[in-house]
Amino acid sequence: MSTFLNGPKVYLVSKPSVDWEQVAEFLEDEGVPPIPDSIRAGEDESAAIAEVSARLCYMSYGKGRKDIADFITNLLASKDGSVFEHINYGFVFTGVSRSLSHELVRHRAGFAFSQRSQRYVDESESRFVIPPALVNGNGSSEHAKTVLSNALEKASEAYSQLVEALEEALPREKFESRTDRRKAIRQAARSVLPNATETKIFVTANVRAWRHFIEMRSTPYADREIRNLAIIVLEILQREAPLLFGDFTFDTLPDGTRTATPKYSKV
Ligand SMILES: Cc1cc2nc3c(=O)[nH]c(=O)nc-3n(C[C@H](O)[C@H](O)[C@H](O)COP(=O)(O)OP(=O)(O)OC[C@H]3O[C@@H](n4cnc5c(N)ncnc54)[C@H](O)[C@@H]3O)c2cc1C
């Protein structure tokens, strides 16, 4: 009996940090005012990284805008987005489908991915992600859900049968190691796995890239599963770095699902 999942689990596993002693030493070596006169971000590490890097361009430590919110907003408004590339956040996503991950990995600039391998890892016990339209309470019919669960059960059975058949068929002497043979079996058997198969993926991206991802994937035109994920990521990043993500506002569509739009598009 397969396990069905209704939505993602999102873990924020890495975030930016600043070595304040090194920043202080750099400011002293350069003969510019010390913290806090040069760096107005206070304890906010994400904003501080944006500020240290942006002020370096003009060596404007201790000069110019005194309010950090005003400083960051000016960077966003003038699309000086390259400084946001210094600030990285890493997430682990589980309970997401292979169709979602296929869309996710299309985001190239500033992203790093490590995804659970279907060649190394056995998928006979794999779980399936129910598309949001078919989750209870979203107005889908019982008939549609039965069609989906029957199809997924059948695919799961076919995978196990294919593994068993290849286990018997593939000659052991043709492989250098047991791992190579197992990999050959699983990489062939995975061809019958559906898009709904759960995957787990570690994704790190910089703030400029996360902003672009969220903008593209939280529109009404994006697939509901990835839109839901983009909105969860946005909510976390708004808590973590309010100055860098606070310009996104939320809306609700007639079907009750949410979208988000930035004030400053593609910085
Ligand atoms: C609603 C929606 C529907 C979609 N439908 C389809 C579809 O039907 N078929 C399909 O194939 N894809 C589809 N996509 C995926 C889409 O085409 C992009 O591949 C994906 O959104 C990543 O966007 P990106 O290239 O801007 O992002 P990234 O790859 O993260 O790039 C960010 C930005 O960097 C710049 N950049 C990156 N690489 C290059 C480069 N090589 N040369 C020049 N500039 C570069 C661009 O300005 C780009 O916008 C869809 C996306 C959305 C949101």
What is the CATH class of the largest domain? Answer: Alpha Beta
**Major beta sheet, specifics?**
4 strands, antiparallel
Q: How would you name the oligomeric state of the polypeptide chains in this document?
A: single chain
What structural category arises from helix and sheet content?
Answer: alpha+beta
Shape: elongated
- What is the mean predicted local confidence, pLDDT? 96
| CATH A-level architecture of the largest domain | 2-Layer Sandwich
Radius of gyration: 24 Å
The CATH topology of the largest domain corresponds to Alpha-Beta Plaits
Say how many strands there are: 8
Enumerate the distinct ligands.
flavin-adenine dinucleotide
Kindly report the spatial arrangement of strands forming the biggest sheet: 2-3-6-4
Helix content: 40-55%
Q: N-to-C SSE series?
A: EEHHHEHEEHHEHHHEE
- How many domains comprise the coordinates? 2
β-strand percent reads: 15-25%
Unreliable stretches (pLDDT < 50, length at least 5) are none
Q: Give the termini separation.
A: 47 Å
Number of helices: 9
